[in-house]
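Exercise 3.2. Students should predict the tertiary structure of the chain below and write it as structure tokens, then compare their answer with the key that follows.

Predict this chain's 3D structure.
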Amino acid sequence: MQTKYLLPILLILITQSVLSQNKKSFIESQQTIPFQKLYLHTDHEFYFLNDTIWFAGYLLHPQTHAPLKTDCNLYIELTDSSGHSVQKEFFPIEQGFCPGQLTLNRPELEEGNYLLRAYTDLLGEYGDDLIFSKPIRISRVKNTAGHETKDKDKHKIINNITIDLFPEGGFLLAGKYNQMAFKATEPSGRDVEIHGRLLNGKGEELMKFSSLYRGMGIIYFIPEQREKYTIEIDGYPNVIYNFPKISDTGAKLMIYKENPDGIDVNVLLNEAVSNQKYYVTSLTRGELNSFAEVSRNKKEKIVHIKNELLKNGINRVVLLNENFKPVSERLVFIDEAEDASLKLKLNQFQFRPREQVKLEIDVSKNIDRNEIANLSISVIDKSSIPESGITENIKSYLLIDSELKGYIASPADYFINEPQISSAKKLDLLMMTQGWSNYVWNTLTKRERIPEIETHLGHTFTGTLKNYYKTKKLTDSEVILSVSGKTDNFMNFTQTDSLGNYTFDNVQFYDSAIVFIQGKNKRDKLNTTITLDSILFSSPETTSSELTLAKHFTKIPVPMLRTKYFNEARLKEFFPDRDTRLIEEVRVTAARPEEEKSQGRIRIYTEPTHTVVLKENAYAYPNIMEYLAGRVPGRVDSTYLFLIDGIEVFSTDDFPAYDYVTSIPVGDIERVEILKHAAGTYYGMRGRNGVINIIIKRGGGRTSTPDILKGTIVKRIKGFSSYREFYSPAYNSENIRSEIPDYRTTLYWNPSIAVEDGKVNCTFFTCDNVAEYKIFVEGITENGTICLGEAEFEAVKNNDTTSENY
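Answer key:
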């Protein structure tokens, strides 16, 4: 009798155990590779040559979007529309954030479309669609916008178009009501708005259809298994398409979003599989949200998923068979619009030129007051914004661009309701087309894990130390690293390992510096040979979707071109020599220079204030300035005028005189003569801070080669790019009437606003432009909540201002 009841219980337990194990296996199969999300908020999308790109970098957890509390390198790259890198910099990311700038003053820069790319060491290893990529436009300042406004491709006659067809759930099921999305594009990849017809094998019209947004639309019909369907498009005689295969057996899902409490998943089955067991599950960014068995007793196979089980952004709904194998899936977008809203409050809506603007940013509406938020703010002239608005923001990037592979034009537009189409409908069309097979999280589960990538902050210097004849690797030997730059001067020490290799991790310095690496043998001698591995970071390959993004990026708005031209003309009137470099007059009153009789060197002064003769051990110092420290009374720094054998060393933009002097091997220097106070006036205003004359050894007296440079590497290496503050003038009663023009392309930029109590205030001043302005605030909270807000105000002539205070 006991056995009679025990057997069913045992079967139930076994079934539940198998179900639990299969569910666990499915969840494990969805585990992805470790990666990051990186976003750059920039002040503009359009720039002019010699402008500065200001940015705020956000390094976030890929699933929660919370800032990653890590320090690492941020690589910034500017790539032209052909995929060639034209400029590279790197910056430090600290605790998930990084402010920075990129100055567009390289001589090789030309007018055109570019990609602003950003990645970390980890994202650089994965490459492709995981790195951040944003199109920008760089233009020259000119008095006509003629060829900027002409879009040749737009007016070109197109006869051939391609229509990609995307059956909901992955395939068409015969005899059932199906939704099939489509996207129409021309050969260049640009979307095309179309009107067309679906025909059967006899050429009979079954239905008409039209695109709803950016060439996308939906065809609703009941396909027959043996029917051959064709498509005709008005105005396009040649249409390229592949009609999906029609299956006469199987199970697929169909999504309805009319229910305000959630979504309804309709499971379509034919008779052959109607008695099989199926499950519906939903996931967001690789994490399981819901799991339900499809009832086999009800005629309508509908599973309702409540809103609280769906997350903000893309949700993946999957139909599993009884073996927990996916048989059909569909992406659904949930837009929690209120979750990201910020309240921006201005002290008034109209301002005079050079008047203070007070802005209050309130994040407490949807965020706990105790939660910290990190924000960045840009205030720009509305003339620099296209009619359709900005193409991308932090919300569109984190929820769309970083989640879907391939080219997406103006992702920010998908969150804007329009009279003819809602934001929800736009997003659903995107999910059914772009999301059909390009969901990033699906591809991440299939990738092989790359070797563990160490997080670096700064340079990593590696190499090998061998004996002088390179026949033996030197183990357990000392290697010295010395860095000498404008702001960073330090030394590090390490030992070689059992293979003779050395490593200096996380070597941090800014701008350009002289890096001196020296290896000694165990007898403390420099009779060695040392190598330095390459430190150049390689660029991830530019993808075809990135190139399409750059190719189709919009032109600079005509009003922006005009404003920039007139502003530059006004500045030119006030500063007629604005584009010319002038040097001050130098009047030489000293006697004609004579050569030192014994040395053959130029000297226009009589006696130096101080003379420092270098000792034999001077070569141990990384540069001459460190050797002089403490040996000369008072300050000795980069403000001095530098001479080599009496000949002035001139600075260039890429190589300042100080850097050149500190790159000279100390062993090559015989002595240094320093002129201070009145003695420096021999060289006019250039010598007002003092003069340093470096006397180089001559002939056989030069000892730096070959002996001193044995076991030594000296290189000039570029470190982190220094961040500089955005210049925002503060006007008061003393300077408000200054005649110096103030025409800022970006009125205000602040990449680092921390909100710790729900609200924060910031102030800035208008400039001389009479214009309408737009404020963009973006950011993220410590828990990953997206922050987004906009506001507008106007700068009017002095007699047109009306105030509306708090």
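Discussion points: Residues 580-598, 702-708, 801-806 have pLDDT under 50 and may be disordered. The two ends are 83 Å apart (CA to CA).
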